[in-house]
Amino acid sequence: MAYHFYGWESADRVKAGNPQTGYAGIRTPLDLYDALSDIWCAETCAPRMRAAWSPENKTLGQCSITAFLAQDIFGGEVYGLVTESGDVHCYNVVDGYTFDLASEQFGRKAKDLVYTGNTLQDRESAGQLGNEDKRSRYELLCRKLAERK
User: Fold this and answer.
1) How far is the CA of 12 from the CAs of 18, 33, 92, 114, in angstroms?
2) Are residues 140 and 47 in contact, defined by beta-carbon separation less than 8 angstroms?
3) At 11, phi and psi to the nearest 5?
4) Among residues 85, 86, 79, which one has the least CA distance to residue 116?
5) 60 Cβ contact partners less than 8 Å away, ≥ 6 residues apart
6) CA end-to-end span of the chain, whole Å?
7) What is the mean pLDDT of residues 45-57?
């Protein structure tokens, strides 16, 4: 499989730190991306972006729930960068390796994203998993990942 998300080149160096997560076969962010590629859907997409979501742009509106799921599996920190539209886009930093499983949603503009000097994100704060919508989408993503065959 060809990868195009930010940090894919070193993502195989990041290893799952919590084998108790129950996500069989997820050893690196590449494995997680492969699994999520079949799971991301309109229901896991942020509601304000749902009308634009498509299988061709499967990472659209998936950043925070994906980044916090990756943190559950690999540890590390979740950071948020401010996009051109003023939204906060989440990504992961683990053991010095930065990866953004949802960066493809930006298409060619992804090259303009800056992955340094950004704000640490807390999953319980408003705007992350602190609201009911994000929490339910996160739980759906986790459930689909655990149930996949």
Assistant:
1) 16, 11, 14, 22
2) no
3) -65, -25
4) 79
5) 45, 49, 52, 53, 54, 102, 105
6) 18
7) 95
Backbone angles phi, psi at 2, to 5 degrees: -85, 140
What pLDDT is recorded for position 17?
A: 80
Bridge partners, residue 100, by sequence:
6
Integer angstrom CA distances of residue 118 from 43, 83, 89, 114, 139? 28, 11, 10, 8, 26
Per residue in 129-145, pLDDT (tens digit) is 668 888 999 999 999 99
Q: Read out DSSP for 56-111?
A: TBTTTT-HHHHHHHHHHHH-SEEEEEE-TTS-EEEEEEETTEEEBTTGGGGGGGGG
